[in-house]
Amino acid sequence: MKEVSDKTITEVLQQYERVVVKYFTDWCGMCRILTPRLARISLDAKYETIHFVSLNTEHNPNTKRQYHINALPTVQAFYHGKLIHKTTSINEVDLSALLNALLKME
């Protein structure tokens, strides 16, 4: 999963139709649990049209503030650059629901 920054997040959201952003910090234990789960889910062929990225909120405070990231980990789904769904759950069922909702966007 490619890491983005305050400088590159807007470009990524504009470049790809469907984007999922995982917000994390290095010290967040739940973030470390989420990372391999989301990586495994992202390899599923049905999600091949979704671009997955991560953003370290400690190093990118502007994006954290802009998207109101108040809990970690947070996963947000964007369609054509617009936020359509978010979750703070690390449960695979909830993550799959977020991804499936993103796939249904037309």
Task: Break the fold down into its secondary structure elements and pairings.
Blueprint: E1 2-3, H1 9-15, E2 18-24, H2 29-42, E3 50-56, H3 61-66, E4 74-79, E5 82-87, H4 92-103
Parallel strand pairs: 1-3, 2-3
Antiparallel strand pairs: 2-4, 4-5
Main beta-sheet strand count, sense and barrel state: 5 strands, mixed
Shape label: globular
Report the mean per-residue pLDDT as an integer: 96
Helix count, per DSSP?
4
In CATH, the architecture is 3-Layer(aba) Sandwich
Question: Could you characterize what this model shows?
Answer:
- This protein is an alpha/beta fold.
- It has a single domain (2-103), classed as Glutaredoxin.
- It contains four helices and five strands, in the order βαβαβαββα.
- The protein has helices at residues 9-15, 29-42, 61-66, 92-103, and strands at 2-3, 18-24, 50-56, 74-79, 82-87.
- It has a five-stranded mixed beta sheet, sandwiched between helices.
- α2 (29-42) links the parallel β2 and β3 (50-56).
- The protein starts with a strand and ends with a helix.
